[in-house]
What we know:
- 40% of the residues lie in helices and 22% in strands.
- With 494 residues, it is of the alpha+beta class.
- It folds into 3 domains: 2-128, 2-Layer Sandwich (N Utilization Substance Protein A, Chain:P, domain 4); 133-197, CATH 2.40.50.140; 277-494, no CATH class.
- The chain is elongated and about 130 Å long.
Amino acid sequence: xxxxxxxxxxxxxxxxxxxxxxxxxxxxxxxxxxxxxxxxxxxxxxxxxxxxxxxxxxxxxxxxxxxxxxxxxxxxxxxxxxxxxxxxxxxxxxxxxxxxxxxxxxxxxxxxxxxxxxxxxxxxxxxxxxxxxxxxxxxxxxxxxxxxxxxxxxxxxxxxxxxxxxxxxxxxxxxxxxxxxxxxxxxxxxxxxxxxxxxxxxxxxxxxxxxxxxxxxxxxxxxxxxxxxxxxxxxxxxxxxxxxxxxxxxxxxxxxxxxxxxxxxxxxxxxxxxxxxxxxxxxxxxxxxxxxxxxxxxxxxxxxxxxxxxxxxxxxxxxxxxxxxxxxxxxxxxxxxxxxxxxxxxxxxxxxxxxxxxxxxxxxxxxxxxxxxxxxxxxxxxxxxxxxxxxxxxxxxxxxxxxxxxxxxxxxxxxxxxxxxxxxxxxxxxxxxxxxxxxxxxxxxxxxxxxxxxxxxxxxxxxxxxxxxxxxxxxxxxxxxxxxxxxxxxxxxx
Length: 494
């Protein structure tokens, strides 16, 4: 039996690449179980493997007591002294039990137990190994097919390439080589299940690391990568060395480097984008091959921006079914709205029109009494916009409205209006906006935030609004005069 056990340990350790300690521990447990079955006793049995002889020794463990009450678990002090004179009460003593009587059946049983436990240890080793390789690329061979799913031999185990992780542009045959990235390792009953992917963007990164030496040694860093499998991909790169062009290095001489990656992805188009810490510049680069006129940062907190392009560049910037702008948005992590210069022009005109045509009731003025409002209406002022047109000086001329009241009315009127911020491209014809007569300042839209893009034909900075027509002296002359007489009579009555 000792020869069988020794040969089994050596064989399993080499074939399964399992730590011999695991095998020995399983062996000892198996021999204990076999001994209990053979002797049919409730003794506390222990087993110990001797690596020098390749045998397993079995012992009955008993506690030293003065008076024995349970012979299966206890031994008297007198008997214990005969075995070892140094033993005292409450010590434990191991009494050897013969193993040659266990027979071949017991040895085979032990072997089966060992194989089972070693199999469990092997599965755990595979799980631990491949769990640390998530995100890494592996080479395998298509071994078998179960419907659309492909089982790939990756060496120590079979990995699964499910349909959802396959590119629609790719088909495989049995025995064909497959490169894929590990995305998940699942602990299932039959053993760990390694899940592969040909659609994960990490595959693109791994291929670039393999084909581009500058990426492998850290000179060029991959910042982000996105792709729609089988169609198009975008990858952002940056160089840590000023003398190294990241885009040129990735393309290679006559496209030799990038073409190797394209072949691996079965003809998928790849856009190599130069990364920038400026979101506007980054967006302009990401929308390649479209030429960007201007990028406007709308909301930095929500990461929203507008990209202005020429009319003929709009379809190119958006791409087929919105693919180009969709990939660019995913690449930089911002929401991108692409608008043509004409669309932006119409948008600005619409905003300006709403500003000039709006009418706000006097009753919305906070802190202004009904009596003052009646005097304003008597003077021909029907809305808040008219107050802003006239200005504080004109308000003072209205009967019953003094300096303090006029200032209070102007302050309430200004509080109603928040500053509207819009971008007006150079050369755009916009209608004149409302101008404050007392301040002489144009109320209009200023750009929220804009970043100039060094692309072709960049638009110049825009004005907040067009200059307004100056107020003419006779513009509201008739109404105040008519109101003066009416108010004077009213004051007399009061």
